[in-house]
Design brief:
Blueprint: E1 2-6, H1 9-18, E2 20-27, E3 30-37, E4 40-46, H2 51-63, E5 69-78, E6 88-96, E7 118-119, H3 122-137, E8 145-152, H4 160-170, E9 172-176, H5 179-189, E10 193-201, H6 207-214, H7 218-231
Parallel strand pairs: 1-4, 1-5, 5-10, 6-8, 8-9
Antiparallel strand pairs: 2-3, 3-4, 5-9, 6-7, 6-10
Helix pairs in contact: 1-7, 2-5, 3-7
The structure holds adenine.
Adenine binds near residues 76, 77 and 177.
Length: about 230
Protein backbone atom coordinates (compact mmCIF):
# COMPACT_ATOMS: atom_id res chain seq x y z
CA UNK A 1 0.00 0.00 0.00
CA UNK A 2 1.16 3.54 -0.81
CA UNK A 3 0.04 6.44 1.40
CA UNK A 4 -0.91 9.70 -0.32
CA UNK A 5 -1.46 12.82 1.76
CA UNK A 6 -2.44 16.42 1.20
CA UNK A 7 -3.36 19.07 3.75
CA UNK A 8 -6.41 20.48 1.95
CA UNK A 9 -9.31 19.10 -0.08
CA UNK A 10 -8.08 20.88 -3.21
CA UNK A 11 -4.79 19.01 -2.90
CA UNK A 12 -6.30 15.49 -2.83
CA UNK A 13 -9.80 15.71 -4.33
CA UNK A 14 -8.96 14.54 -7.87
CA UNK A 15 -6.77 11.68 -6.63
CA UNK A 16 -9.60 10.59 -4.32
CA UNK A 17 -12.07 10.67 -7.23
CA UNK A 18 -9.71 8.56 -9.37
CA UNK A 19 -9.77 5.65 -6.87
CA UNK A 20 -11.44 2.41 -7.87
CA UNK A 21 -12.73 -0.25 -5.42
CA UNK A 22 -12.87 2.49 -2.81
CA UNK A 23 -13.60 1.95 0.85
CA UNK A 24 -13.46 4.67 3.50
CA UNK A 25 -12.13 4.12 7.03
CA UNK A 26 -12.41 6.70 9.82
CA UNK A 27 -9.58 7.06 12.31
CA UNK A 28 -8.79 9.92 14.72
CA UNK A 29 -11.40 12.10 13.02
CA UNK A 30 -9.86 11.61 9.57
CA UNK A 31 -11.31 9.78 6.56
CA UNK A 32 -8.82 7.43 4.90
CA UNK A 33 -9.95 6.53 1.36
CA UNK A 34 -8.45 3.18 0.34
CA UNK A 35 -8.62 1.72 -3.15
CA UNK A 36 -6.68 1.26 -6.35
CA UNK A 37 -5.00 3.63 -8.77
CA UNK A 38 -4.11 1.41 -11.72
CA UNK A 39 -2.49 -1.63 -10.16
CA UNK A 40 -1.35 0.22 -7.03
CA UNK A 41 -3.17 -0.11 -3.73
CA UNK A 42 -3.31 3.29 -2.07
CA UNK A 43 -4.75 5.09 0.91
CA UNK A 44 -5.54 8.78 0.35
CA UNK A 45 -5.98 11.19 3.23
CA UNK A 46 -6.66 14.90 3.61
CA UNK A 47 -4.74 15.36 6.83
CA UNK A 48 -5.50 19.01 7.57
CA UNK A 49 -3.08 21.89 7.99
CA UNK A 50 0.07 21.76 10.08
CA UNK A 51 2.84 19.48 11.25
CA UNK A 52 0.88 17.72 14.02
CA UNK A 53 -2.03 16.75 11.73
CA UNK A 54 0.38 15.54 9.06
CA UNK A 55 2.44 13.48 11.53
CA UNK A 56 -0.65 11.83 13.04
CA UNK A 57 -1.97 10.79 9.63
CA UNK A 58 1.44 9.59 8.43
CA UNK A 59 1.76 7.34 11.48
CA UNK A 60 -1.77 5.98 10.91
CA UNK A 61 -0.93 5.27 7.25
CA UNK A 62 2.11 3.30 8.40
CA UNK A 63 0.54 1.43 11.34
CA UNK A 64 -3.05 0.84 10.30
CA UNK A 65 -2.71 0.63 6.51
CA UNK A 66 0.81 -0.82 6.36
CA UNK A 67 1.95 1.79 3.84
CA UNK A 68 5.48 1.04 2.62
CA UNK A 69 5.90 4.39 0.85
CA UNK A 70 4.50 7.86 1.47
CA UNK A 71 3.87 10.65 -1.06
CA UNK A 72 2.70 14.09 0.06
CA UNK A 73 1.34 16.53 -2.53
CA UNK A 74 0.33 20.15 -2.07
CA UNK A 75 1.07 23.81 -2.57
CA UNK A 76 3.87 25.86 -1.02
CA UNK A 77 5.38 29.33 -0.86
CA UNK A 78 8.35 29.81 -3.21
CA UNK A 79 11.53 31.15 -1.57
CA UNK A 80 13.92 31.39 -4.52
CA UNK A 81 14.03 34.19 -7.09
CA UNK A 82 13.71 31.83 -10.02
CA UNK A 83 10.58 30.09 -8.70
CA UNK A 84 7.08 31.48 -9.18
CA UNK A 85 3.45 30.47 -9.14
CA UNK A 86 2.92 27.10 -10.83
CA UNK A 87 6.53 25.96 -10.58
CA UNK A 88 7.25 22.66 -8.85
CA UNK A 89 9.60 21.63 -6.04
CA UNK A 90 10.31 17.97 -5.26
CA UNK A 91 11.98 17.38 -1.88
CA UNK A 92 15.60 16.36 -1.82
CA UNK A 93 15.42 17.04 1.94
CA UNK A 94 12.96 18.37 4.48
CA UNK A 95 13.52 20.26 7.74
CA UNK A 96 11.24 21.57 10.51
CA UNK A 97 12.41 25.19 10.60
CA UNK A 98 10.55 26.06 13.82
CA UNK A 99 12.40 23.60 16.04
CA UNK A 100 14.59 25.89 18.12
CA UNK A 101 17.12 24.40 20.56
CA UNK A 102 19.64 27.15 19.82
CA UNK A 103 19.70 27.89 23.59
CA UNK A 104 21.46 24.50 23.90
CA UNK A 105 23.94 25.26 21.14
CA UNK A 106 22.05 23.43 18.39
CA UNK A 107 21.23 24.86 15.00
CA UNK A 108 17.70 25.83 14.05
CA UNK A 109 15.76 22.74 12.97
CA UNK A 110 18.07 20.36 14.82
CA UNK A 111 16.92 17.77 17.37
CA UNK A 112 19.24 15.68 19.55
CA UNK A 113 20.59 12.59 17.74
CA UNK A 114 18.90 13.48 14.45
CA UNK A 115 20.26 15.02 11.28
CA UNK A 116 18.91 18.51 10.71
CA UNK A 117 17.96 17.76 7.12
CA UNK A 118 16.00 14.56 6.46
CA UNK A 119 16.60 13.03 3.03
CA UNK A 120 13.70 12.00 0.81
CA UNK A 121 13.88 8.65 -1.00
CA UNK A 122 16.00 8.72 -4.20
CA UNK A 123 13.69 6.30 -6.05
CA UNK A 124 10.60 8.38 -5.27
CA UNK A 125 12.43 11.61 -6.23
CA UNK A 126 13.42 10.02 -9.54
CA UNK A 127 9.88 8.78 -10.23
CA UNK A 128 8.37 12.20 -9.45
CA UNK A 129 10.99 13.96 -11.58
CA UNK A 130 10.29 11.71 -14.57
CA UNK A 131 6.54 12.22 -14.11
CA UNK A 132 7.17 16.00 -14.18
CA UNK A 133 9.33 15.73 -17.31
CA UNK A 134 6.67 13.83 -19.19
CA UNK A 135 3.95 16.31 -18.19
CA UNK A 136 6.17 19.25 -19.22
CA UNK A 137 6.60 17.78 -22.69
CA UNK A 138 2.82 17.93 -23.13
CA UNK A 139 2.58 21.62 -22.04
CA UNK A 140 3.05 24.78 -24.10
CA UNK A 141 4.57 26.82 -21.26
CA UNK A 142 5.95 24.22 -18.89
CA UNK A 143 6.72 25.24 -15.30
CA UNK A 144 10.18 25.05 -13.77
CA UNK A 145 11.20 22.13 -11.57
CA UNK A 146 13.66 22.19 -8.71
CA UNK A 147 14.68 19.24 -6.56
CA UNK A 148 15.67 20.93 -3.30
CA UNK A 149 15.18 21.51 0.39
CA UNK A 150 11.64 22.06 1.61
CA UNK A 151 11.23 23.78 4.98
CA UNK A 152 8.18 23.32 7.19
CA UNK A 153 6.79 25.14 10.20
CA UNK A 154 3.42 25.86 11.76
CA UNK A 155 3.19 29.33 10.21
CA UNK A 156 1.98 30.67 6.89
CA UNK A 157 4.92 32.79 5.73
CA UNK A 158 4.10 36.19 4.25
CA UNK A 159 7.01 38.47 5.01
CA UNK A 160 10.31 39.23 3.29
CA UNK A 161 12.46 39.01 6.45
CA UNK A 162 11.41 35.40 7.10
CA UNK A 163 12.01 34.52 3.45
CA UNK A 164 15.57 35.79 3.72
CA UNK A 165 16.16 33.88 6.96
CA UNK A 166 14.80 30.59 5.51
CA UNK A 167 17.00 31.01 2.43
CA UNK A 168 20.14 31.73 4.44
CA UNK A 169 19.64 29.34 7.34
CA UNK A 170 18.44 26.33 5.35
CA UNK A 171 19.13 26.98 1.65
CA UNK A 172 15.41 26.38 1.19
CA UNK A 173 13.55 26.30 -2.12
CA UNK A 174 10.04 26.56 -0.66
CA UNK A 175 8.14 26.72 2.60
CA UNK A 176 5.02 24.88 3.75
CA UNK A 177 3.42 23.46 6.89
CA UNK A 178 3.59 19.65 6.74
CA UNK A 179 6.50 18.10 4.84
CA UNK A 180 9.05 18.26 7.67
CA UNK A 181 6.85 16.28 10.03
CA UNK A 182 5.91 13.75 7.35
CA UNK A 183 9.62 13.26 6.63
CA UNK A 184 10.46 12.96 10.31
CA UNK A 185 7.69 10.40 10.93
CA UNK A 186 8.79 8.38 7.90
CA UNK A 187 12.43 8.52 8.94
CA UNK A 188 11.87 7.17 12.46
CA UNK A 189 9.69 4.39 11.00
CA UNK A 190 12.13 3.53 8.18
CA UNK A 191 9.60 4.41 5.45
CA UNK A 192 10.62 6.07 2.13
CA UNK A 193 8.88 9.37 1.34
CA UNK A 194 8.78 12.28 -1.07
CA UNK A 195 7.08 15.69 -0.93
CA UNK A 196 5.80 17.24 -4.18
CA UNK A 197 4.87 20.91 -4.01
CA UNK A 198 3.44 23.35 -6.56
CA UNK A 199 4.22 27.00 -5.80
CA UNK A 200 1.02 28.89 -4.95
CA UNK A 201 2.71 32.12 -3.82
CA UNK A 202 6.03 33.77 -3.14
CA UNK A 203 5.67 33.91 0.68
CA UNK A 204 5.89 37.75 0.65
CA UNK A 205 3.42 40.58 1.28
CA UNK A 206 0.94 39.31 -1.33
CA UNK A 207 1.12 35.64 -0.31
CA UNK A 208 -2.45 35.34 0.99
CA UNK A 209 -4.02 36.78 -2.17
CA UNK A 210 -1.73 34.69 -4.39
CA UNK A 211 -2.53 31.56 -2.40
CA UNK A 212 -6.31 32.11 -2.53
CA UNK A 213 -6.24 32.75 -6.27
CA UNK A 214 -4.10 29.70 -7.06
CA UNK A 215 -5.18 26.90 -4.70
CA UNK A 216 -7.99 25.40 -6.81
CA UNK A 217 -5.80 25.61 -9.94
CA UNK A 218 -3.24 23.28 -8.34
CA UNK A 219 -5.52 20.22 -8.17
CA UNK A 220 -5.12 18.97 -11.73
CA UNK A 221 -1.33 19.24 -11.90
CA UNK A 222 -0.95 17.66 -8.45
CA UNK A 223 -3.16 14.76 -9.44
CA UNK A 224 -1.22 14.21 -12.68
CA UNK A 225 2.15 14.41 -10.91
CA UNK A 226 1.11 11.89 -8.27
CA UNK A 227 -0.46 9.48 -10.78
CA UNK A 228 2.67 9.79 -12.94
CA UNK A 229 4.89 9.10 -9.94
CA UNK A 230 2.88 6.00 -9.00
CA UNK A 231 3.12 4.64 -12.56
CA UNK A 232 6.92 4.74 -12.30
CA UNK A 233 7.27 2.80 -9.04
N1 LIG B 1 1.64 26.93 1.72
C1 LIG B 1 1.48 27.64 0.61
N2 LIG B 1 2.05 28.86 0.72
C2 LIG B 1 2.59 28.90 1.95
C3 LIG B 1 3.31 29.89 2.67
N3 LIG B 1 3.56 31.08 2.13
N4 LIG B 1 3.71 29.59 3.92
C4 LIG B 1 3.42 28.39 4.47
N5 LIG B 1 2.73 27.43 3.84
C5 LIG B 1 2.33 27.67 2.61
Amino acid sequence: MIGILGALDEEVNLIREALTDRITVEKAGNLFHCGKLGKMEVSVIRCGIGKVNAAICTQILIDRFQCEKIIFGGVAGALLMGLGQGDVVISSHVVQFDIDLTAFGRRHGELANQDRLIAADPGLIEAATRAFDQLSEEMQNPPALMVGTIVSGDSFISDPATIKWLQREFGAACTEMEGGSVGYTCKINGIPFVIIRIMSDKAGDKAVEEFDAFLSKSSEMLCKLILGTLRRL
